[in-house]
Amino acid sequence: MSGYLAFPFAPDARGRSASVDRARHIREMIEQVLFTAPGERVMRPEFGCGVKELLFQPASDALAAALA
After folding, report:
1. How would you label 35-66 residue by residue, b for 16+ Cβ within 10 Å and e otherwise?
2. Contact at 8 Å (CB) between 33 and 44?
3. What is the pLDDT of residues 1-16, one digit of tens each?
4. pTM as predicted
5. Which of 31, 37, 42, 45 has the fewest CB atoms within 10 Å, i.e. is most exposed?
């Protein structure tokens, strides 16, 4: 058994809380930060980076500076 809850939370085949290993847990946490828009979480409005909004923007120096 791994010590980290899977994200998104779901039951496993036995009906218990699904768990993942450390590497998978870290990957899931990074994905949460990258794919959450600032202001999306009510109690944590500063959480997230809003990368999805930048995905289809035209390539420019301003976009490169924003991503840096």
Report:
1. ebeeeeeeeeeeebeeeeeeeeeeeeeeeeee
2. no
3. 568 999 889 999 999 9
4. 0.68
5. 42
